[in-house]
Request: fold
Amino acid sequence: MSRARTSNIAVRVPDPMLGARVKKQRERKRMTQTKLAARVRVSYQMIGRYEKGTTSMTVEMLQAIAAALEVSPLFFLDPDQQAPTNEVLAELMEALHKIVERIRALLK
Reply:
């Protein structure tokens, strides 16, 4: 029996664009790479690679970074997206969770 490889689902957007948005939001929050890394449990070097676009991130990592920076994951994917209210954020996170669950089901 093989296990589904859910942690390897990578976000398929131009990584430098996504990384630049992560960096911009991190700086808006006056957060260091080290502090963000601690919150999402990766090294500060990995945060730097995400921000430079040299490493793709999984959906789960995008969710973790978004939560640490107090925005929706969609905030990083849509350049026109503004920081949503908590109510909108909850709805978006629920929708994203359903998408991830569907992907996991397809991988089984």
Confidence is low (pLDDT under 50) at residues 1-6.
